[in-house]
Amino acid sequence: MHIGLIGGIGVAATVVYYQRLSTAVASRGRSLDLTIVHADVQELIRNSLADEKVKQAKVYSELINRLKAAGADCVAITSLGGHFCYDETVKRSSLPMISAVKPLDGYFASKGYDTVGLLGTRVVMQTKLYGQLQQTRALTFEDEIETLGQIYQDMAVEGRCSDQNRELFLDAGRRMVDDLGADAIVLAGTDLNLAFDGQKPGYKVIDALDVHVDVLARLATDETTLKEAGADI
How confident is the model at residue 1 (pLDDT cuts 50, 70, 90)? Predict the structure, then answer.
């Protein structure tokens, strides 16, 4: 299956999607059929902060049309924060959409996690992954959402994480485990690999990107169907 990705939001996350998806498909002895379009991260940030769901969905729909013209069979958004207008985009999409949020609830439950701590964009933390977790409770530091969200946004735009901000994210995760009782910390922002890759934080970490990539890899190698993958059409 030809996978289409809406990338650029941010660039570092897109690169990681590309790397991990291509590796996952190659490990199965298959070749990856992939097309990526570049979205404007600043436009996404403006629309997200203003809660302009329809406006951003229209931006996505144009990009999806380009992916369809390139031969893509389905499309995924390479940003959990970029899912803030997911339902509005599905209504306008010319391709089946593969959510990065929907697979997470079942994944957490399969691992036996009753409570997970969230790190990511403001909207992801505020809405507790858009309210889509039914089997697992999500939590974060409510009074630190603005600070953590701004630091995450700056990191995503810049495409790098300073040592100071890396320690801030690692410490926030540690405190959610120690003080709030989280069973694991979810990297609910696809650029958080910039802070966590190569680190040993001393607590369980789940990269939401990996869960999404696994679904896309199974689609790319015809191990699953769009229906089985829960595609939104």
Answer: very high
With a CB cutoff of 8 Å and minimum separation 6, the contacts of 19 are none
Amino acid present at 19: Q
Q: Quote the pTM value.
A: 0.91
Which tens digits make up the pLDDT trace of 143-167? 999 999 999 999 999 999 999 999 9
β-partners of residue 118 are 186
Rg (C-alpha) for the chain, rounded Å, is: 17
Interatomic CA distance for residues 226 and 233, integer angstroms: 9
